[in-house]
Structure formats: structure tokens, C-alpha cells
Amino acid sequence: MANFLHSWLSNDIAIDLGTSNTLFFVRGKGIIVNEPSVVAVHQDPYKKDRIVAVGREAKEMLGRTPHNISAIRPIQKGVIADFDATVAMLKHFLTRVQGKMNLMKPSAIIGVPVGITEVEKRAVRESAESASAGEVFLIEEPMAAAIGAGMPITEPSGNMIVDIGGGTTEVAVISLGGIVYSHSIRIGGDTMDKAIINHIKKHYSLLIGERTAEEIKKKLGSAMFDDNEETMIVRGRDVMAGVPRNVEIKSREVVEALQVPVASIVEAVRMSLERTPPELASDIVDQGIMLSGGGALLRNIDALVQRETGVPVHLAADPISGTVLGAGKVLEEIDRLRQVLRA
Question: Domain-by-domain residue ranges, the chain?
């Protein structure tokens, strides 16, 4: 550990290996990569280079590929589902960050879900090492998100962070640089997208893809009903006739579709408050709950959590980048924040 992160010959990095997006933070430079966690792969096992596209270019291919190419998400529910595709994705982004001629392997801090198993931890380390990273350290995502949101995590007071990602929602209570209590559920932005897909299929007999569902969520989605009634024309494939068809969707319908996953997130927060030690719970009531992650951008979710818990709720300044910014801050303040790393 003595020389960790102190080489002038390599660009040490922090990585948020998320279900929806992968972000790279380079020490001294900030966020260099922010791309969808998608890889397009050629199906021919004998093809020398099976990777067709990575990141944003690959996401554009979702639902549009020919039979011999598959666009996949190698990270599912916050953990590695396809090891080879994850290595290929990391290699692609590392080459962009480091350049092809850089011979020094960068040390890396990678965010992982708080409830991750030892097997899953090993998969994260090995994927980064296979992609030419050097020494690899892990940090729990809610801890990184709390640091990225500017919470005083090293002080002897209770800090609650709710990190709503693409595959998971993680609630953590932090004090003195450690996680006192945590709760993780495998519900996040992707679950919301699937709920919208199922709603439209059930009520309109129309099939839509992930990208369309995500667009609907961003434009019409809300955690609770309000007076902001909007509509959107949605195009999909008719289940019965098999031909393209348009329907008009109202925001009220989307709120209804999202009720189950949103209720699960609120319940996770409420249960975490109930199980927090009394002294720390009183701190949280005074300081409030911090929301981070892409799912925190769902309209009115902060208002709903506040209404259901009676505790003030704040939205992080940069919810999407919070985890990688926090891990990046550890890179730059390693002497002060070394304790939050997991070997």
C-alpha cells in the first residue's frame, strides 16, 4: 500500500462499473469516460475480434442488431453477468484513458454494491486486472456516493445515503468513515423501465424496447401524481397484428406503472431508518437523507421519500456521477480517506 496511487508515470483511475453506465475518473483530470455499459458482440466464436462496438455506439444497436450480432449489458443488478464482455469494455475505456503506448498499469479504485459476495468481488478484480489495470481496490458504492455528495462521512454523526442505480438501490448509514447499517435491493432504473414496458404491453398490446421505455421514464416519469399532466407519442409493434403502431401515453399512466418499484425503494429507506441506532437516527432527522444515483432524478421521488418518512430529503448535486466522483476524491485524498477502501 505504501506506493499506492503515487506514481507519476501512470494515470490512477476510479471506476463506477454500473449496470446502466460506466464512468472513469482519472486522478488530476476528472471524469474522462461516461458511457453506457453496453457491448455489441459478434456471435461467431471463431472470429478473432468479436467486439463490434462498446458504450454509446453499442447502445444505439440495442434491439436493432442482425442475427449474427448481439448487443448485451455485461453488468446486471450491479454485478458482472458476462466476464469476457466486461473485460472487453474495460479494455476499450482504459485504452481511451491511457493510450495504446502507455506501459504503466494504473492503480484502480472500483465501486461495488455493498452486499456483494466474495465471488463477485473476485470477478470485479479479475476483470480489471485482465483489462490491464494494476493494483485494484474496492469501495462500496454508497460510501463513494456519500463522499461524492460531500457528506461528512468521517465525523461521529449519522449520514444516510440512498443510491438509486440502474440495477440496485442501496441505503447506507455512515459514521466515522464506516458503514454502520446497509440495505440493498435489486431494484433500480432498469426495473422502472421494465415496469413501463409491461404496462404498455398490458394496456395497449404494444411492444416497446428498453430505449423507448427509458425515454418515457425521463419525459413522463414521476414518483407520485401531481398536476403536471403531459403526453407522449410512443411507437412500437402491435402484439396481435405484428405491425408498427403509435399510441399516446399520459404521464398519469407512467406514474401508475412505476408505483411498485418506487414503493419498494421507499420501503427500503423506511426499514433502514427503523433499524438505525437511535443516536445516529436523530442525526439523520437533523441532517436529512441524501439521494444519489440516476434513479434519484425521477421527478418527485425526493418529495415522496420525505412525505413517507418525515425526514428532510436532499438531492446530490451530481447524482449520476456521484459514485465515481467520490471514488475519485479518495484517489486524490488517499491519506485522509484510505480507511474506506476494501482490499
Answer: 1-35+77-149+320-343, 38-72, 153-316
